[in-house]
Amino acid sequence: MKNDTIEYSNEVQVDTIHYNFYNYLDLNRWNSYFHQIEETLAFEPKSVLIVGVGDNIVATILKQYGVKVTTFDFDNTLHPNIIGNVVHIKEILQEQRFDVLLCCQVLEHLPYEYFEKIIKQFSEIANNVIISLPYSSTYFKVDIKIPRIKERRILLNIHNGHKLFKHNEEHYWEIGYKGYSKRKIEGCIKQFLKIQKLFTAKHNHYHLFFILTQSFNY
Question: Of 17, 51, 194, 204, which has the most beta carbons under 10 Å away?
Answer without folding.
Answer: 51
